Amino acid sequence: MENQKQVFVIGHKNPDSDSVCSAIGYAYFKNVRDKRYLYAPARAGSLNSETKFVLDRFKIESPMEIESLAATVSDMELKDPIVASPNNSIRDAAVLIREKNIRTVPIVDPGKKLFGIVGLKDIAEYYIGNLGRKDLSTTPIDLNILVTTLNGKVIANPNKIESLTGRVFIAAMQKATIVNKIRPGDIVILGDRYDIQLDLINADCSALIITGDSAISHEVRKLATKKGALIISSPHDTFTTARLLDLSTPLYSILSKNVPVAGLYTRISELKPRVLESKYRCALIVDSDNRLISIVTRTDLLHPISKKVILVDHNEISQAVDGVQEAHILEIIDHHRVGDISTLMPIHVCNEPIGSTCTIVAQLMFLHQIDIPSDIAGLLLSGILSDTLILTLSTTTDRDKEIARKLALIADIEIDKYGKELLKASINIKGKSAKEIMLHDFKEYSLGTKKIAVSQVMIIDKEEINAKEAAIMSEMGALFDEKGYDLVALLITNPLEQGEEVFVKGDKRIIEKAFDVVVQNGKCHIPQTLSRKKDFIPKIGYFCTTS
After folding, report:
1. Are residues 382 and 476 in the same domain?
2. Are residues 388 and 440 located together in one domain of the fold?
3. What SS3 class is residue 207?
4. 336 shares a domain with 239
5. Vertex 520 angle, CA 519 and 521, to 5°
6. CA distance 357 to 350
């Protein structure tokens, strides 16, 4: 039930500070405003160095990392399973099935480890297949199980027999006939026929089951002790006792191991076909040690099961965490172009052309007069300063500046001084591999028929990038081939200089036409400093959709 009440607030893959800080801030806002759910901030990838700096600076725990939003077994309302032991009888299982109105019973050991399963059909097939059974050699019956099933008593057991294994007869014929049929080791069910009881024991029967709570004479008891015969008293009539003998078979003799199992993190999309294809119409949920947790039936899958999520700082499938299309999206809070995520139901969407998602989150808090703690204010300010390059990028609006000033007052932070600390944490690429640099702030876009990937990195020392240029170009080529992109671009921004250096792999004509530049040896220089969402993507998008 707790899983059903949880809502993840999550940003895009390869998260940046705006993505992570807005997720934490909006989860805080929603938890104050809405007590129906528990809103949990999350991230869709590893933290970059800048975001780590921000979380450490304000002593905020890193949000949980989520690899997929696809619904799993753990999202279901799992019930404690009704189980039986391998040593329980068929009758025990049949009673459970009838009383609990179920069709199947998982069989587990005392430590809850799964042995198998028994269904109503298994019991029926076994019972019908063994009607009139005359030999227990293939499926011996445990004495304790038999006595419990019969609700009977052991009158004599001199040889301490633990299980019955011989042929079975019902003494419903004349004395001479039954005595002539008996061989040593046989089992006989009979009533109060004192005249034949002694003869059967003398014929070396292994056991007599005397029905109807009949009195058992001293002579019979004495002879049984002498000859090593087992005597059981049953309170039932002979016909019922014979039927219950069949139902005394232990479940380990008839259980099936051919049943689908799943774990807590098995996707519902994988679980459904297993349940539908199973003859038991269910799947058993087990942990890593094969201990039974629950049972899922077809009925449990009738209603939709999905994770609840709010997306922040993105609204495109290519940038979203895996499985987002299977999730129940409740809201989208963003400041990018409208992408391709669609929903089955109307949802709340707040998408504004401003510099940072954190600005939107803080604005909502001010609007609803939410008291903003200093650490949350510091986080939101960090997201704004990060995404606007300390309020200098072309995407920066007057609202970003106003909200940033308000948050700085709450957090007791000097914007320019803190902004430089943030920038220093962001531009450190020493010790990072080419792949880490490429994936540091990496996003995919579908522009017309083109599949584009754009990464962005900030530097102070150009030589640091120059030293890694060959490796970066190689990594870009690997991404280009692996993902089938039409264009991969890396925007290199130096906040102390104007313009952008761009590394290009793929259809360079898109860059050349959009910015009126020439790409040589996979590189070009664009005179103005670019915002990826406001300047770069809109310009190349025009040529991608019209070419």
Report:
1. no
2. no
3. strand
4. no
5. 125
6. 10
Give the end of a domain, one of 391, 426, 461.
426
Q: Are 246 and 209 in contact (CB under 8 A)?
A: no
Q: Residue 78 in contact with residue 282, Cβ under 8 Å?
A: no
> Confidence band (pLDDT; 50, 70, 90) for 2?
low
Model confidence, pTM: 0.70
- SS3 letters for 282-350? EEEEECCCCEEEEEEECHHHCCCCCCEEEEECCCCHHHCCECHHHCEEEEEEECCCCCCCCCCCCCEEE
Q: With respect to residue 77, please indicate whether it lies within any of the assigned structural domains.
A: no
Of 456, 479, 449, 460, whose CA–CA distance to 532 is shortest? Answer: 456
Nearest C-alpha neighbor of 441 from the set 15, 11, 10: 15
Tell me the three state secondary structure of residue 476.
Answer: helix
Amino acid at 89: S
Whether the CB-CB separation of 215 and 141 falls below 8 Å is answered with no
The pLDDT tens digits for 228-274 are: 999 999 999 998 998 888 888 889 888 998 888 999 999 999 999 99
Are 501 and 418 found together in one domain? no
Contact 410, 374 (CB under 8 A): yes
| CATH code where residue 367 lies | 3.90.1640.10
Q: Give the contacts of 381 (CB within 8 A, at least 6 positions apart).
A: 358, 404, 407, 408, 411, 413, 415, 418
Q: In the numeric block, which tokens belong to residue 5?
A: 């009440």
Same domain, yes or no, for 287 and 347? Answer: no
Q: How confident is the model over 289-346, as pLDDT tens digits?
A: 999 999 999 999 988 889 999 999 999 998 999 999 999 999 999 999 898 888 888 9
How many Cα atoms sit within 13 Å of 404 on the Cβ side?
A: 26
**Tokens 């905020």 found at:** 60
How many folded domains does the chain comprise?
A: 4
Of all residues in the chain, what percent carry a pLDDT higher than 70? Answer: 98
| CATH number for the domain that contains residue 120 | 3.10.580.10
Around 190, how many Cα atoms within 13 Å sit in the side-chain half-sphere? 26
Residue reference for tokens 């895009």: 12
Range of the domain at 326: 3-71+306-426
Distance CA 205, CA 479 (A): 81
CA separation, residue 372 to residues 208, 359, 422 (Å)? 83, 13, 21
Looking at the fold, whether 167 and 143 belong to one and the same domain comes out as yes
Instruction: Establish if 444 belongs to a structural domain.
Output: yes
In a domain, residue 58? The reply is yes
